[in-house]
Amino acid sequence: MPVLSEDSGLHETLALLTSQLRPDSNHKDEMGFLRDVFSEKSLSYLMKIHEKLRYYERQSPTPVLHSAVALAEDAMLMVHDTVAQKNFDPVLPPLPDSIDEDFDEESVKIVRLVKNKEPLGATIRRDEHSGAVVVARIMRGGAADRSGLVHVGDELREVNGITVLHKRPDEISQILAQSQGSITLKIIPATQEEDRLKESKVFMRALFHYNPQEDRAIPCQEAGLPFQRRQVLEVVSQDDPTWWQAKRVGDTNLRAGLIPSKQFQERRLSYRRATGTLPSPQNLKKPPYDQPCDKETCDCEGYLKGHYVAGLRRSFRLGRRERLQSPQEGKMSTVAESLELLTYEEVTRYQHQPGERPRLVVLIGSLGARLHELKQKVVAENPQHFGVAVPHTTRPRKSHEKEGVEYHFVSKQAFEADLHHNKFLEHGEYKENLYGTSLDAIQAVMAINKVCLVDVAPDALRQLRTSEFKPYVIFVKPAIQERRKTPPTSPTCEDTAVPLDEEQQEMAASAAFIDQHYGHLVDAVLVKEDLQSAHSQLRGLLEKLSKDTHWVPISWVR
Prior knowledge:
By secondary structure, the protein is an alpha+beta fold. The chain has helices at residues 10-20, 28-39, 41-58, 68-84, 143-147, 169-178, 262-275, 327-339, 371-381, 412-420, 439-447, 461-464, 502-518, 531-545; strands spanning 109-115, 122-126, 133-138, 155-159, 162-163, 181-188, 202-206, 232-237, 243-248, 257-260, 303-304, 307-308, 344-350, 361-365, 386-387, 392-393, 408-409, 424-430, 433-438, 451-455, 472-478, 483-484, 497-498, 524-528, 550-553. The protein has 4 domains: 1-55, no CATH class; 105-188, Roll (Pdz3 Domain); 202-275, SH3 type barrels, CATH 2.30.30; 296-324 and 356-482 and 499-548, Rossmann fold (3-Layer(aba) Sandwich), CATH 3.40.50. The chain has 14 helices and 25 strands. The longest helix has 18 residues, at 41-58. Residues 193-197 and 293-338 have low confidence and may be disordered. Belongs to the MAGUK family.
């Protein structure tokens, strides 16, 4: 690359930059943009003027007249007034001589839009009654929307001089897509031009994956907006009850895309469920979730490094027998689950404020996650800041145990009465003794401004998702890596993967089930390779919990 001297001017530098641009397969658009900018004549003229002024300034000029300053000010004002009176609006092309006889000249609107490689940002349809090609919708942020010259209901007659009256909408869309730079449209305005789209800022968390290329119902696949489950979308228009316009939060693309509306998506899911193509929750076979160790001593030991931590014993989910639930309660629970259709959840930004109760931290885990070990390590490291809910039990108190420390010891009658009044988040039976975690026990930890950590079966999440708890849900799953055989010395032999053993298959199935059926309720996913790395990840998440802003259901903060 040539080297510039200190005396090189800006204009020379600009010309050199233009000549040195090289095409890059990964950045063609950026290179094209820079080349267009550097090659602009007006920029070149400005650089030359700048160089002349700098050269003249270096000559240290002296005024010829004492009144030179005043004259210069007057000259600047005259130039300003002259420029201000100029009209710099783009010059539209002349109105075509040949105009259809079925409408007056005054009703025709010639619109010239400038777009690069972006879509025009409008969809079209054919009117069922008149057969006219009309603008169906304007996409927020697109070229058509930014111009303010095209409206919903406008009839499209020509594109760059090509008559479109007898063309199919897909053919017209192809013409628009292939047009670059300046596009000239001949339009018959709608009888009553609709007002500009009202500003709408509604944020929705997607509870499902969406790919418009796989959606045969969408009016224009190219205008669709793909998204992943748990992504937050900014819905900018709900004018169409079937297809909303939205943008992904954090996306740099200014143009909105089409997504199915909540009502439309629910109707589709209901139809699929009725026809049997969408499985119902009550028909799902649930794999086992996280289970602590199976040693008998786990039921009575809650010590870590010599410190006792309540609630760190054997999970009552281990050895769980039939839940103490009436047939009517079970029926209601099944009906509630079967009616849930996962579409969108309205959310808002939330940050924990001083004086507020800490958010509840909920751990769910697939088989092999060993959540109790993570809880032990976190609480033992900082017992002043973190705590766990003291469980209830009907077993007799042992001599070394204290009421409200290891357990809340209650009679079977009292336990069943609380169970009847829905005071337990979870409960189970082990060795003919009842165990359970009550909502009151969780609230007691939060009341003393400690972050309460609970590990529950995923089914319990729905009961905790309230403004009172504002749960932050962390899904912990073990890392399962395929092992590979050592490749033989022969180059013709290929490296092959060793199939997962039965235990690994169960872990993978458990994690996949939770992700598929409860993943939309999860705020963070933690992949556990070993206890130390998992603890470091968990500690990082907990440190950000009170500092960062998070998306939460809007009902939690209203």
